[in-house]
Amino acid sequence: MEAKKWVNWSLNAMLMVGELYDYLVEVMGEPKSDEYIEELMDFGNSLEIKSDFHSFCRNHKLQTAGYRCALFRKKYIIIYKTDEKRVNILGVLHAKRSPQAFEDLIE
After folding, report:
1. DSSP classification of residue 4
2. Which residues pair with 87 in a beta bridge?
3. Are the C-beta atoms of 68 and 55 separated by less than 8 Å?
4. I want to staple 97 with a disulfide (CB 3.0 to 4.6 A). Which of 33, 45, 76, 101 is the partner?
5. What are the tens digits of pLDDT across the range 15-50?
């Protein structure tokens, strides 16, 4: 079993979650948006014990840089990099975004 790791949401990832929340409030209202974002955050935080479960990203540049991609509800991809002690979440993008949007996230 994988040891627990510290999950760090980057500022960029948190800004993306905030933008997603604003969008969701417009289309489905505040209560459902709150629930959706809470589930997204819980999913991301679960990487503390499941970080090696997800495969490396399909995007060649992200894969080469060692990033993994976790799919949330078949719609959003959480992009992260892990080491022995940490999971660093780089961003949260809609699965249908242009591959260039993913490459732009590389630090």
Report:
1. P
2. 7, 82
3. yes
4. 101
5. 999 999 999 999 999 999 999 999 999 999 999 998
